[in-house]
Write a structure and sequence with these properties.
The chain is α/β, with parallel strands linked by helices. It contains 13 helices and 13 strands. The protein is globular.
Length: 341
């Protein structure tokens, strides 16, 4: 056996079927890792993202449910990872209002289950927790950093804040190398259509091709810090390469409204968004978060992470182009989507 194989790093990623899980898997495989992907059995048909990024063949998949402590223990014993990246969550803010208990179980208590399994099996395993800018809520009208007070405005954000806090506890009380990335909004061509950015770009493609007439959206003035998921997974990895664990804001430092996102997306295909975007109060949140903009100076200074490598307009156009191709060349998209086992 070669020295490379003897000392090959091993990583376990929960939420492997999601946007971030797929991009992180690709990043780690390219780094030479042996990657294990934890997935819920009900998520089988979501493997298309891994096929889309041409990485499924390089991953060993393990069935795991974050509400089942036994399955978490078994996955860690099977994978014997050096690093665990917990990206699994009930990830839709809107759904958390109608499913607060399930959200708390998965996005909050699920973090404790992972950390305690590590504590019991191998405390030397390094752990990454996917925290979120939603934890800030409407706490600040200036850029948010690691010291900005949290004021969660949804069950999703509250559950994530519990998970974020328990990471700090295990780091200090049990000396586990556990870090949280407070990631601001990050998008990509493989973003789920339930998210407003993908809803917009998918609608742009259908409107341009004549299969849809308009898109209904909620608050067009909500401001977000949007980056590219492919850039953000590098920050996750960098956190676990540090001698000391810590928490880091990951963001572009730029802020744009939903209206601006629409303007760039529609103009990219030669359309005026004002003719096709309709506001509908049904899509407003019960407790709206109006402004999120991150200050990632700590991550840049300590991790050497580069913010905003993919600019806002480049990101939006990338997503529109991918959706245009999806509808103009459905065979290519379906080839990835149907490879679900």
């Amino acid at each position: 056996m070669s020295n490379y194989m003897m000392f090959q790093k091993r990583a376990l990623i929960t939420g492997i079927t999601g946007q971030d899980g797929a991009y992180l898997a690709k990043f780690l495989v390219e780094k030479g890792y042996k990657v294990f992907g934890a997935y819920r059995r009900s998520s089988t048909r979501n493997f298309w993202r891994l096929h889309y990024l041409d990485v499924k063949k390089d991953i060993e998949l393990l069935p795991v449910d974050l509400i089942d402590q036994t399955s978490i223990h078994q996955a860690i014993k099977d994978a014997q990872p050096d690093e665990v990246y917990n990206l699994a969550a009930q990830s839709f803010v809107g759904d958390s209002f109608s499913e607060p208990i399930a959200t708390a179980e998965i996005s909050g208590i699920g973090v404790v289950r992972c950390l305690d399994a590590i504590r019991q099996i191998n405390p030397k395993i390094k752990f990454y927790q996917a925290s979120t800018s939603e934890m800030f809520g409407n706490s600040s009208n200036t850029k948010q950093n690691e010291d900005t007070p949290f004021q969660p405005a949804s069950p999703y954000a509250a559950a994530k804040l519990y998970g974020h806090s328990i990471v700090r506890h295990y780091r200090t009380a049990h000396s586990i190398h556990a870090s949280s990335g407070i990631l601001f909004n990050h998008e990509s061509p493989i973003r789920g259509v339930d998210f407003v950015t993908k809803k917009i770009t998918d609608s742009v493609a259908r409107i341009k091709l004549g299969t849809s007439e308009y898109v209904a959206l909620g608050n067009l003035e909500a401001k977000r810090d949007w980056g590219f998921a492919g850039d953000y997974v590098k920050a996750m990895w960098l956190m676990l390469q540090q001698k000391e664990a810590d928490d880091y804001v990951i963001a572009t430092g730029e802020c744009h409204t939903v209206r601006e996102f629409c303007e760039v997306a529609f103009s990219h295909v030669g359309l005026d968004y004002k003719k096709y975007v309709r506001q509908d109060k049904a899509f407003y949140r019960a407790h709206e978060v109006n402004y999120l903009q991150g200050d990632s100076s700590k991550a840049q200074r300590v991790l050497g992470w580069k913010q905003n490598e993919t600019g806002f307009e480049t990101l939006v156009k990338m997503m529109v182009d991918a959706d245009m191709e999806k509808y103009q060349n459905p065979e290519r998209f379906m080839k990835h989507f149907l490879k679900h086992v």
